[in-house]
Sequence to fold (180 residues):
Amino acid sequence: MDIEHDRTVVITETAQPVVVPARAAAVEPVVVAPATQEVREVQTRRTISIPSILAGALSIVLLILGGVMVARAGFDGPLDEPVVQVVGVAGTAIGGLALVACGLAFLIAAFSGDRGAILFVSVLVGVAAAVVAIEPNVANGALGFERGFAVVLALACALVALVAALTPTLRTSTRRLERF
Fold:
């Protein structure tokens, strides 16, 4: 004698197994395995900061210039002698160390992505460069910088400060569903 049973099967996309009761007592409950595909929402965010890009580029230039200047001048004698030339820029080991410090400050500000930090560092380094441009023999000429380089550095810092003050940070966001 065949007995027909009414069953309801529900399949959902959950991680929990679903137990479906049967109507007749002779039939065991049916356990339906969870769906093999999980659905997850993925959100992607992208930030583009022009001040960070400029500050990063300026930091790379300052780090390379200062590093080569320190390497050429060396630490074996007084740090304010000799005056060496690197890509047409004159400086001493102390001047190279100052450029490396400024480059590290710009690099940290660029990686932070904070426009305020970039603005602060660019104003600080720009003022120091303007002081050297006005009086190249500051600290009895220990830095060894020439007026032309200090003017170019002050203008580069002014450009970075202007861009940091005026340009917005561009943020984009996308959402999509992934099945796996």
